[in-house]
Amino acid sequence: MREKVVNWILFIVLSLIWGSSFLLMKIGLQALSAYQVPALRILSAGIVLTPFAAKAFAQIPKAKLGVVILSGLLGSFFPAFLFCIAETQLSSALTGMLNSLTPLCAVLIGVFFFQQIPQRQKIIGIVVGLVGLYFLVAPNGRLDLGNIYYVLLVLLATVFYAVNVNIVSRHMHGIASINIAAIAFVFLIIPCVIILAVTGYFAQPFTSTKVIGSTAAACVLGMVGTAFASILFYRLVKRAGALFAAMVTYGIPFIAVAWGYYYGESISIFQVGCLGVILCGVYISNK
User: Fold this and answer.
1) 97: region left, alpha or beta (phi > 0 left; psi from -120 to 50 alpha)
2) Cβ(137)–Cβ(97) below 8 Å
3) Alpha-helical runs (H) found in the chain
4) Which H helix or E strand runs over 133?
5) Residues in CB range of 2: below 8 A, 6 or more apart
6) What count of Cα atoms within 13 Å lies in the side-chain half-sphere of residue 90?
7) Spatial distance between the Cα atoms of 125 and 199, rounded to a whole number of angstroms
8) 256 CB neighbour count, 10 Å cutoff
9) 131 to each of 136, 141, 247, how far by Cα in Å?
10) How far apart are CA 206 and CA 215, in angstroms?
């Protein structure tokens, strides 16, 4: 019982953090480009975790270093850029909702590439959750996704997330979560600095309140939404498995709606009902 309680606490905390991250991306994009925001995000995460890198490098088996770095690329680096580029055309709420496709991708990738056999109830739960998600995005039964190119960027990010949860679940047992995160993000510091330099970030007018606000949002996103959240996520994957961890993305629309309500967006009873359906899918899959 205590194990399940801890797993659900991690689930809720991660949902809160990552559900808020899409709004922080939007704030970051007010004055910075879709390449500068994710680069700052990953850079700040790497700086925060630098003090742990030496110990992590000594403790992680050398044969596992490549897998850890790959996890950082698939689980954080590439998705961070894909989401920010998508949010130049899509709303933060819609982007967060589309992110809920990750559990389905996690099951499919686990079946086709990691020889996993999902239980029937888990598949049913994911389908129920996706039905709720569909009507949440398309309340009139018509899916209006705007520019399909940007939607596909989000879907590609969910595929990367799904591959990552399977990699962590299969290959990283016995490695401390802090060590995984430290190596993964410290390795990405130099590429992020290069991207910031090439895109002209260091020439920004740092006396501008908009630039300062966007920079602060990107850094908070990195320190909390990436560094801290990644440690919790790696821990959840190893405790509860890839499918349960991937289903954190089902909690994100709840937070997106809450932020929308806070900022004055209208929230209908129908939307609340759809969120209830999604929650039912989470329950069925983890019953």
Assistant:
1) alpha
2) yes
3) 2-28, 36-49, 53-59, 65-72, 78-86, 92-98, 102-113, 120-137, 148-171, 177-186, 189-198, 209-222, 229-240, 242-246, 252-262, 269-285
4) helix 120-137
5) none
6) 28
7) 43
8) 26
9) 9, 11, 14
10) 9
Both tokens of 263, joined, read: 């900022």
**Can you give the pLDDT of all 287 residues of the chain as single tens digits?**
677 888 888 888 888 888 888 888 888 999 999 999 999 999 999 999 999 888 888 888 888 888 888 988 998 899 999 999 998 887 777 777 777 777 767 777 777 776 667 678 777 877 887 787 777 666 665 656 566 788 889 889 988 988 887 787 777 777 887 888 889 899 999 999 999 999 999 999 988 999 999 999 999 999 998 888 888 887 888 788 766 776 777 777 778 777 767 766 666 777 778 777 877 876 776 66
Show Cβ contacts of residue 136 under 8 Å, excluding neighbours closer than 6 positions. Answer: 97, 253, 271, 274, 275, 278
Burial 212-232, CB ≥16 within 10 A → b, else e: eebbebbbbbbbbbbbbbbbb
Place of tokens 């894909």: 82
Burial of 165 (0-12, 13-18, 19+ CB in 10 A): buried
Question: At 218, which amino acid appears?
Answer: A
- In this structure, are residues 97 and 136 in contact, taking their beta carbons and an 8 Å threshold? yes
